[in-house]
Amino acid sequence: MNALSRNLVRSTVLALCLLVSACPMQLAPDYDPAIYNGITGVNLAVMEFFASAAGGTGAASYPDREATYNKLIGTLDALEIQSSARPVPKNKITDQMNDWLTKKGLPPVDDDHIPSAMALAGISKTLTVMRNTDKKQGLTEMEVAAFKGQTVIYMDQAITYESFLQR
Question: Does the pLDDT value for residue 8 go beyond 70?
Fold first, then answer.
């Protein structure tokens, strides 16, 4: 092969590499501003609710809080459904990433394991346990703080993931 042919082959290979590397590879679901706005809105409502119960609650006053519990849990469940309804792209890179996650003992990123949906489900479950405990016996200040702490961890995960999708 003469020098001109070698340079042409090298240039063609280089151009193909640049072309392929410029193609965006989607690894996560599409950003949805309605989901992000819904999560940040429910975050505000949940934190206001925790602030109102920070000193503890009594079982006798539970009926005053029941509608708030139900509204928050319903909103979280609806956002979980919206978040998990987005399809996760399938390609070789996501397959390799999921293999690595599985080897590390972590759940793969797929239609059944959207991080924000899993976090929202965790918050809903936490508030459901809190609601049931509150109804039965009321909540101490320390119990409210524990429920809030767990909720903050999950909420941070949901907001962080959805913020990442915004890119």
Answer: no
The domain of 74 spans 28-166
* 14 assigned to some structural domain: no
Q: Please state, as a whole number, how many other Cβ atoms lie within 10 Å of the Cβ of residue 53.
A: 21
In a domain, 69, yes or no: yes
Nearest residue to 120 via CA among 65, 31, 38: 38
pLDDT per position as a tens digit, 34-81: 999 999 999 999 999 999 999 999 999 999 999 999 999 999 999 999
Res. 89 pLDDT band, cuts 50 70 90: low
User: Is pLDDT of 17 > 90?
Assistant: no
Note whether residue 17 is domain-resident. no
Residue 15 in domain: no
Cβ atoms of 155 and 46 within 8 Å: the answer is yes
Kindly tell me if the per-residue pLDDT of 93 is higher than 70: no
Tell me the C-alpha distance between 34 and 50, whole Å: 24
What H or E segment, with its residue span, contains residue 90? none
Q: Using alpha carbons, list the distances in angstroms from residue 85 to 25, 29, 96, 118.
A: 20, 9, 23, 12
Q: Which residues pair with 134 in a beta bridge?
A: none
How many degrees, rounded to 5, is the angle at CA 26 between CA 30 and CA 14?
150
How many domains does the chain fold into?
A: 1
